[in-house]
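Worked example 3. Consider a protein that binds KG4.
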Amino acid sequence: MKILGIESSCDETAAAVVEDGAEILSNVVASQVEIHARYGGIVPEVASRQQLRTIIPVFKEAMAETEGTWEELAAIAVTIGPGLAGYLLVGVNVAKALSLAKGLPLVGVNHLEGHIYANWLDSNDRLREGKGQAPEQPTFPLVCLIVSGGHTNLILMKGHGRYVPLGQTRDDAAGEAFDKVARILGLGYPGGPAIQRAAASRDANAYRLPRAWLRGTDDFSFSGLKTAVLRLAEELGISSGAPPVSISSPTVADLAASFQEAVVDVLVTKTADAARKHGVGQILLAGGVAANELLRQSMAHRSPLPVLLPKPILCTDNAAMIAACGYYHFKEGKTSGWNLDVVPGLKLVESR
Ligand code: KG4
Ligand code: ZN
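Given these inputs, the predicted complex is written out as structure tokens:
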């Protein structure tokens, strides 16, 4: 069963065709990183205009790459939220138009649920070092850590679409912290990859940075860490207004490494604790920050359980994950009507 997925919730415009919720037949992502990099972050008006320009060539390319026909598709899955209304509307309206023109059912998908379902796509890294082979597929119950630019959520997943929220960030999302600290250090946008590059082979213990453990809860907090980096940067004479500094600046690189270590330490420790507490058999990582090399390695080393995680390219925003998630909805007969609308503040809840 082939599903066309469409994603436009943030600064990527993406379309993909996925078979049976697993096999990627095409996966086209048009990133706006270069456009936004010159402003040091996303400019919403620029992003939605760019999405309008890009969406049609992107879904045409996704269809062309599969060498299949529209008749072979079973449905069209599209992200309805969370995200900015102006971006989401582009994808949802195109999906509706295609659904009408081609007579295909429409499936509205939660972007966060999509990130989780990237773990069902073939070609994932089924990681487990020294603690036995990870199963081929995610197996319930499991604990999932979603770490993206806008969200940090720990979730107990009991079955397809059955989510019990365990904890979330009380202030900045993990990805947001990477982006803000990269800006403080003059490392540019997007911050996550920039910090990872700067931190490579540097001393992660060079600076002692605070970790907010919020003991007794599965919640997170990263704003104190961000403020600590800001104070240190000021003391060290690193000015955020300055043009991007060279990542070869040892002070900046050590500070980036110490920050990355602090974020990963908290994410890994709290995720492993939650998995133990809830007696699950697996840990899943999802979202853009799950592309982080240190997080991937530390989770694998320090987890008591098998860790499943999408390939880095499938952690960041893409439409293959939306198609995979849409497949599981569609299989259960969950399709959307013409009144399908965007839901910018959509939450991930126990939905079935
Ligand atoms: O999931 P995503 O692509 O978009 C949202 O749904 O937000 O996540 C984007 C976030 C950004 O904050 C970006 O800096 C972060 O993921 N990110 C990373 C890495 N790659 C992307 N953070 C740390 N290390 C990375 N390698
Ligand atoms: Zn995302």
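Take a moment to read the result before moving on. The longest helix spans residues 250-277. Residues 128-132 have pLDDT under 50 and may be disordered.
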